[in-house]
Amino acid sequence: MKRLITSPIYYVNDIPHIGHAYTTIICDTLARFYRLKGDDVFFITGTDEHGQKIEGAAAKNNLKPKQMSDKISAEFRALWDSFDISYDHFVRTTDESHERTVKAVFARMYESGDIYKGEYEGNYCVSCESYFPANQLIDGEFCPDCGKKTSIIKEESYFFALSKYEKKLLEWYESDKCILPRGKKNEVINFVKSGLKDLSITRTSFSWGISLPGILNEPKHVVYVWLDALFAYLSPLGLEQNGTLNLAGQGNMAHFNECGVHIIGKDILRFHAVFWPAFLLSLGLPLPKMVAAHGWWTRDGQKMSKSKGNIVNPKEVAAAYGIEQFRYFLLREVPFGQDGDFSQRALIDRINSELCNDLGNLLSRIVGMSSKYSEYKIDASKLEAKHKEELDAASEHINTALKEIDEANMSRYLEEIWRVLNIANAAVAKYEPWTLVKNGDIDGANAVVALCANLLAKAAILLSPALPKTAAKIADTMGFEINTENFTHFITQNSTKDFTTKACDALFNKVESELMMPPVPQNEPQSEQIKIDDFAKCEIKVGTVLECENVEGSSKLLKFKVDLGESAPRQILSGIAKFYNASELVGKQVCVLANLKPAKIMGLESQGMILSAESEDGGRKLVLLGTHSPVKNGAIVG
Ligand code: ME8
Questions:
Q1: Which of 267, 270, 341, 410 most suits a substitution to test ligand 1, by most atoms within 8 Å of the C-beta?
Q2: Is 134 exposed, middle or buried (0-12, 13-18, 19+ CB in 10 A)?
Q3: Residue whose CA is at the smallest distance from ligand 1 atom 24
Q4: CB of 16 closer than 6 angstroms to any ligand 1 atom
Q5: Which residues pair with 614 in a beta bridge?
Q6: Is 626 exposed, middle or buried (0-12, 13-18, 19+ CB in 10 A)?
Q7: Span 342-500: which CATH code?
Q8: What is the pLDDT of residue 531?
């Protein structure tokens, strides 16, 4: 079977971090697994290099966008090479063949009537490279995905007729594994059912992007970065050939047509589960077999950020603890789709208990027992007769593991492999082969060793996609090969074998204490300094909330009546409905920016601004400012 496996095509605005490593390692594990099974796999990763975000990042670093792209793209590639990531193609969206593909796609969609010209005005989040409708913004201006401030952009734009594909998308969602985890699928279905707007797919406000095909003669426009980047999944397969599109699935396109699998983070699900299939439908191409979205990593329970200096650098973790140890941790720590937390303590615990004890010690025991009892020879002839129960139990876990990996659930996959290892470890404890030998039951002792060796061999074969070097060491020590033939023998046919082992070093070493320095907060960016006269322009007063109610039609706004010691109370609107119940605020004292020019929000006048502080505990939250003890209404803050 032919398969395409893709990681996201990563932005080059900054160096790779743990999130990028996680997705890429899942893809690598899947690619290795299916190759081992005998499938013809094509695995693509790469870098997303166009758009305003990259243009801005380059300017900050005093680089041209292409220089910035070259530098960071090379860092991604070098990291994956040092991790021995088995990608077949590293695509860059600045590759000439990719740019040609995007132009050919654009021209095709335009000719078929799915692209038309119009004008767009909306709130744009540069960080997410995405427009958001006003009713989805937090407090009317912040991005609902990343929390950053959006800006209003008005520009002439070409649109893609996304709305036309609503019905076909809903039909696609009916196929079982198209979106995983399944819970996420409902979110997507609800989004599509709430009505799709046509998608703006060109930009005129900057120039760092792919220009439109010549037939349109539109030098001001560049292609929207998501339309550009998504086709990086197909440009390396030869979607475009000599200026025309290969829609018949010839050559490497067959990998996508037979089984396209996209592994992504949950942050970019909408682009992959709504826009991407709609683009494919427009071209008459098959849809992916699976779009699987994983969760988000934090560090020591905190969101990672540059200012906290706590972004986990994969290179650093691998240098301190080892690549395979890091791979194991990432794949094992969280069930697919859930958020995970990185901490050195958790990593060390997994290394010591699972890799050293459960896995490493099992290999040492097998080698030790076989050397003592049978000169390194392991005879499996009595195994089936004596240990059918254990073999059957292991085979059930193996079958479950195979189902789990088919849904990209690496953590459950590894858990099942560990259950197989535990059957072997429990058998040693239960039968005590050394006691059997003492009592003259040599056959019995050999059968236990053969059981352990066969279970470890099966586990090592299944483990090899996740921990290729470790599995290869186990196989070398036990004298077998990790290949498709042995996958069929040990896993598909559930058979056993004799082995000849040899002495070996410990597979893993225990880690006594943390090997990386704790994160150091970076210097906060200096904000512009002001004079006292500037501050004096702000009239901040304390007032008491007389009334407070929700604004009809808004989930975010509360309407206040605040007594500021003036002749009449002020009406003030504030976007804090998500964080407070209206009734709990009546009678409380708040701080108000009183000389703010009145503004209309949802048709209601707001005469000032209630001040609040941002808190980031578990997401963005606003906390109202007050005084420590009651003061007179109208008291000046300063
Ligand atoms: O979105 N935890 O690129 P990107 C887990 N160029 N995974 C994380 C993560 C975190 N804290 N942070 C990032 C883009 N990721 C687009 C993709 S595809 C055609 C275009 C991972 O560099 C996760 O896989 O922002 C997420 O989807 C990806 O990095 C986003 O990488």
A1: 267
A2: exposed
A3: 265
A4: no
A5: 622
A6: middle
A7: 1.10.730.10
A8: 85
Question: What is the CATH architecture of 2-294?
Answer: 3-Layer(aba) Sandwich (3.40)
Taking the C-alpha atoms of residue 591 and residue 631, their distance in angstroms, rounded to an integer, is: 11
User: Are 2-294 and 342-500 the same fold in CATH?
Assistant: no
Q: Are 169 and 278 in contact (CB under 8 A)?
A: yes
The answer on pLDDT for 305 being more than 60 is: yes
Q: Where are the domains of the chain?
A: 2-294, 342-500, 532-637
* Binding site membership of 11 for ligand 1 (Cβ less than 6 Å): yes
Is residue 336 helix, strand or coil?
Answer: coil
Residue 297 Cβ < 6 Å to ligand 1: yes
* Distance between Cα 79 and ligand 1 center (Å): 16
What is the three-class DSSP state of 367? helix
Confidence of residue 526 (pLDDT cuts 50, 70, 90): low
452 among annotated binding-site residues = no
Beta-bridge mates of residue 43: 5
C-alpha torsion 14→19→22→28, nearest 10:
-40
CATH classification for the domain delimited by 532-637, as one of 2.40.50.140, 2.60.40.1580, 2.60.120.10, 2.60.120.590 = 2.40.50.140
Ligand 1 site, residue 19, Cβ cutoff 6 A: yes
Nearest to 227 by CA among 329, 313, 137, 105: 105
Digit-coded pLDDT (tens) for 242-264: 989 999 999 999 999 999 999 99
Ligand 1: centre distance to CA 141 (Å): 23
Q: How far apart are CA 142 and CA 123, in angstroms?
A: 9
CB 87 within 8 A of CB 263: no
**Secondary structure (3-state) at 526:** coil
Please tell me the residue having the least CA distance from ligand 1 atom 19.
230
CA-CA distance, 182 to 458, in Å (whole number)?
30
* Bridge partner residues of 264 (DSSP): 293
Report CA(19)–ligand 1 centroid distance (Å). 7
Judge if the beta carbon of residue 46 lies within 6 A of ligand 1: no
Instruction: Label residue 472 by pLDDT band (50, 70, 90).
Output: very high
Please, which residues bridge with residue 50 across strands? none
The residue written with tokens 């209206």 in the block is 582
Write the pLDDT tens digit of every residue in 154-173. 889 999 999 999 999 999 99
For 403, the token pair is 């189902």
- CA 94 to centroid of ligand 1, rounded, Å: 19
Is the distance from the beta carbon of residue 7 to the nearest atom of ligand 1 less than 6 Å?
no
**How large is the average pLDDT for residues 320-326?**
98
| pTM for the predicted model, two decimal places | 0.82
Q: In angstroms, rounded to a whole number, what is the distance separating the alpha carbons of residues 173 and 340? A: 27
